[in-house]
């Protein structure tokens, strides 16, 4: 699989806002990420009460981009 360009900061910011504002329950956020192909262990790494939905989404997006940059 070819390398994917990094997600533009404006797009990531909009996606984080949507995760925060459009999804009321954390389980809904989890379902969106896992359905999109995010590995459960990666998502679960950040899914704790110390992280808001926005902080969780940002951390997952950042780690996915870091992983892709090493391909």
Key traits:
66% helix; globular
Give a quick precis of the structure.
The protein is mostly helical and 71 residues long. 66% of the residues lie in helices and 0% in strands.
Question: If you had to describe this structure to a student in words, what would you say it looks like?
Answer:
With 71 residues, the chain is mainly α. The chain has a domain at 24-69. It has four helices and no strands. The chain is globular, with a radius of gyration of 12 Å. It starts with 8 loop residues before the first helix and ends with a helix. 11% of the residues are buried.
**First-last Cα distance:** 9 Å
Order of helices and strands: HHHH
Low-confidence stretches: none
Helical element count? 4
Helical content (DSSP H or I, runs of 4+): 55-70%
The number of strands is 0
- Strand percentage: under 5%
What about the largest sheet?
Answer: none
Structural class by helix and strand composition: mainly alpha
Instruction: Write down the Rg.
Output: 12 Å
């Amino acid at each position: 699989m070819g390398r994917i360009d990094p997600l533009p900061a404006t797009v990531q910011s909009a996606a984080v806002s949507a995760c925060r504002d459009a999804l009321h329950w954390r389980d809904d956020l989890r379902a969106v990420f896992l359905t999109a192909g995010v590995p459960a262990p990666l998502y679960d790494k950040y899914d704790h009460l110390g992280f808001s939905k926005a902080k969780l989404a940002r951390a997952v997006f950042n780690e996915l981009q870091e992983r892709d940059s090493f391909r």
